[in-house]
Amino acid sequence: MPLLAIVCLNHLGRCRRECNETDAAQSCFAQAAALARDLPFPPYQISTNINLSLTQLDRGNYAAAENLLQEALALADRLQISALTGKIYLNLGTACFHQGKYAQGQIYYQAAQEAYHRLGNRISQGLGCHAQASIALEMGDFAAARCSFEQALALYRETGAKHNQFVILGELGNVLRLTGHYPAAREHYREALALSQEIGENINRLSLHADRAWLALDMGDLAWAEAELAQIDDLLPQDRPAEQKGLAYLAGSRYWQFRGDLTEAARFGEMARTLFREQNKRALPSCAVRQGYVMAEMAAWEPAQKLFAEALQLWETANQPHLAAEARAGLARVALVQGNLAAAREQVEAILRFLDGPEPPNTLAGTQEPALIYLTCYEVLQAAGDGRATAVLEEGLAFLQERAAELDEKQRQSFWENVPSHRRLALT
Q: CB within 8 A of 300, min separation 6: which ones?
């Protein structure tokens, strides 16, 4: 009877989790784990630990999930149960990923990939590639991320895993957007949206519309951005994961800043920060920078300085220098306005050392407003009478021109005229 109860509870828990009923799922898994501990049958202890760790991941309790998975891995290794190790390694990598332990997460994801390869499981091999791509993206290695995402997509298409294809198309679109390949990003987002409608995938559609809105703003296509935000307004009242709502609020904040409504931009930014403080602390520095930009435009220099400093500390702790450069530029802009040229130069010098690095990440791809970072570096160097100012300005213009080259004539006009930081850099 206990074995049957464990099987039923695990099955019911999985069903609850698929319906986003996290509390009910965790209750089922916890009951199954309690029963499994009293049985002399270790495979059930391993499977219940794995299931319970998934609800901890859903809740954002990443350290707790990691502990459960470490217990499961130790038991699986001791009993040489290789069929489960790939899944354990994959989830361990995810737990580390969300804690900012990217190097350790990469090791676990590689171990998962090797385990799945030995089993010949093509869908799971796709999951391994997908996971490695996510780590590479966080570490700023965009070429490696794109390569792994494309490998995962090929495996998912080979196996007909349409939900996985939907997810990977959106994430590959993000890499293409961040690296300035806007038409390709738009096509991947379009394909992801069509696939979501085909398979009835509704849970993750909000974040896809947020990504599309962000791309529209990158391109200066404000009409398209408005259309995506209208879709977001329709989806927000529904039960959605907090992380997706936060991404939607960030897109809304940037849109209203572009439109010049800084009060509304600040309101959306604060809603995003509130959600991410509760559910996804990894996204907090991006929120802080977004809100910092709004505060700076409102000439609220002290709040802006605090927000940029918060983002810098979080990104430095996570060892993400390619993102920390944006927080440094924000601090430099505040210091310049406040007349502290020495402090501004200190931040700019750190950015330039990063850009001069021989290996990735050594690019501003991945930042929210790369043009504004280049403009800040130029203005600080110019104020200091530093001869490198012109070279930095030219580098920034070349960065934007490379992205504009992939757009048609009408899109290029929007790109240069409707994105405030692009317009300012071009007019300098």
A: none
Residue 241 scores a pLDDT above 80: no
Return the number of other C-beta atoms located less than 10 Å from residue 406's C-beta. 15
From 60, 92, 120, the end of a domain falls on 120
Residue 271 token pair: 């809603």
**How far, CA to CA in Å, does 17 sit from each of 9, 205, 416?**
12, 18, 46
In order, the DSSP letters of 204-218 are THHHHHHHHHHHHHH
Does 146 fall in a domain? no
Mean pLDDT for 198-226 is: 94
Q: What is the mean pLDDT of residues 138-144?
A: 92
Give the range of the structural domain holding residue 103, as residue numbers without chain letter.
Answer: 1-120
Contact 212, 182 (CB under 8 A): no
Residue 384 lies in a domain: yes
Q: Of 120, 148, 181, which residue is a domain's last?
A: 120
- C-alpha 5/C-alpha 52 separation (Å) is 16
Q: Is 270 exposed, middle or buried (0-12, 13-18, 19+ CB in 10 A)?
A: middle
* DSSP secondary structure, 259-296, as one string: HT-HHHHHHHHHHHHHHHHHH-GGGHHHHHHHHHHHHH
Average pLDDT over residues 27-53: 79
Q: How far apart are CA 203 and CA 207, in angstroms?
A: 9
Alpha-carbon distance 422 to 424, whole Å?
5
If one counts the domains in the chain, the total is 2
Q: CA-CA distance, 90 to 396, in Å (whole number)?
A: 39
Let me know if residue 301 belongs to a domain.
no
Give pTM, 2 decimals: 0.86
Helices (H), 99-204: 102-119, 122-138, 142-159, 162-178, 182-199
Q: Is residue 101 part of a domain?
A: yes
Task: Kindly tell me the sign of the dihedral angle through the C-alpha atoms of 264, 269, 272, 278.
Answer: negative
pLDDT digits (tens, 9 = 90+) for 290-345: 999 999 999 999 999 999 999 999 999 888 999 999 999 999 999 999 999 999 99
